[in-house]
Amino acid sequence: MEPIRVHSGLVYPLNRSNVDTDQIIPKQFLKRIERQGFGQFLFYNWRFDEEGEKRDSFTMNDEKYNDASILIAGDNFGCGSSREHAPWAILDYGFKVIIAPSFADIFYNNCVKNGILPVKLTEDETQAIIKKAEQQKLHLTVDLEKQLVVDEDEFNFSFDISDYHKQMLLNGWDEIAVTLTNEEKITAYEERQQIIG
Question: Could you tell me which residue ranges the Aconitase A/isopropylmalate dehydratase small subunit swivel domain spans (predicted)?
């Protein structure tokens, strides 16, 4: 995974609460065994009609949000089933950061394991960003080291993240990489077991 320290990008506002993983990536697209290729199906039932044509009514299809890399949404984002395909689709589409007042626990952990930074802000802070991003093109900078979300003029919001998750993202580690940080201890243990055995 790529490390995340500071990310600056265009914001896409999805002003909806309780967005579940079946809305993020519908079940009919879960047949792939690799992590790539899911981005095209992100929010598929909202983005496309029954004929596969883009819906003008869904704001993500607006060209002004092309190249957005920060997704901001309402409360309880990623609820529903625990499918890891949901963060795969989000990352494959191009989003590196998700901001919301709260996340489903399993989805939050799956984001971190796949190199997406999930940021929890208050409801008021989230709504302030959503409203501004709906009115104009908004770029934010998310600084994981300083735990800050800022824009060029008014926003300067701090967020909490556990040390464990922060270190995983800062270093680009998945859980295997975290385990391998103890490789010397693991090797020493194995060598002791061979002597005892």
Answer: 5-123
